[in-house]
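Lab meeting prep.
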Amino acid sequence: MQGILAPIQFVVFGISLYFVLDYLRTGQNYDIAIWSVVAKTLILYTIMITGAIWEKVVFGQYLFHESFFWEDVFSMLVIVLHTLYLFGLFTGIADDGVLFATALAAYVAYVINAAQFIWKLRQARLSSQPAIEAVHAADSDAVAGPAMAQAA
């Protein structure tokens, strides 16, 4: 599920970032900019819930397992910033400057958090590569072993 939601969230983020920056630059497309952040936030909530369920299934706890502790901590900051945006929008407590500043802060935090996860996945892939190569080498030796024995 995360493999589907993460790219979708990134695409929505990119589109939303474009509209937010375009609005800040030109003053146009206010509604699209505002609601694009809402859409990004809803996808964020979805990916956070499904990620917590995955973490529970794999590690036995919903969040903050040592394997993803710092990623989860930073994810909470991302969620808080997005939620503050929604709160400011729907209560009317924040003016446009505060709303868009909050959205941009949330987006910066999101990019950092996404980079954390990508880094973690890359490190896991790199650390498993020697193990994979060893398995393939062992398999090759096992196949070549009997053939070599018969040739001798």
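Slide two material, second protein:
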Amino acid sequence: MNLSWLLGLIILSQQVNAPGSLFITNNGQPLSSVNRSDLSMNIPGLPMNIEKFEKWINIIDKSVSKEPKNAMLDRHGNIIPEKPGSMLDRKTFTEQVYSYYFNNGSSQLEVPLKEVYPRVDSELLGNIRSEKIGSYVTSFNNHNKERNKNIYLAAEAVNNYVLFPGETFSFNKVVGKRTAGKGYMSAPVIIKGELSEDIGGGICQVSTTLFNAVDNAGLNILQRQSHTKEVSYVPPGRDATVSWDGPDLVFKNNYNQPILIQSKTVNNKLMIEVYSSDVITYIPKKVPYLPNEQNRLPK
């Protein structure tokens, strides 16, 4: 918000101490109320407490804002349409509150909203699902339920992610902190070359499979670190370890078209595919698999 404009508007206005509350509604339902005394500084020439006003308007904004939802593909390849979000129209709301503040009597105000559009709509998603430019498959043990749960959660976190030209993807940022509150469980993990137990054990198989898939697609790998001990699901040196306050997998979309990441588990296999539009010009890279070709899923 432009504070110099705000201050100018205040100074040009006279201080008002008239009684009466402003009632804020959202879709006709009560949302908040405020008195002039709640906003006043009781200082001649500067009647409104800007700090209080900013805190109050931030609370209003948070309570009415709704994140938009990108269009996405379900497990059967059907497009689930996008859903627009909303946010407070802060400029209009500020003007309306000031109009109330410098006039007598109570008032009611329906909170003004602005529509927020998602980054990915159905049309864009339909365009960038046509050309598979990279993929990779790894196998895991079906009997380790805790580790499998972690793999599933991390795979879902990267699934349907769209990376636009020039953007970078950070595994830690996209997946977020792995906590028990998010459903992650304690499972085997390699720490300093030793096998141990930790929350989120197994997610490195997701970062590793993703690394090989985007490397296969020829994307620019910016950060990638191997474990200090070899893993069983990829050839030596083809893994990508990650931890919340440590190593990350970061890559960049160096193409002129957006890319779409599709990630899923089928039986005991984790499959990650990279798609884009049929007009993309890309340079794929051959990546190695383990000698056991069962790691590949039928096409």
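Talking points for slide two:
The chain has eight helices and 16 strands.
Residues 3-18 have pLDDT under 50 and may be disordered.
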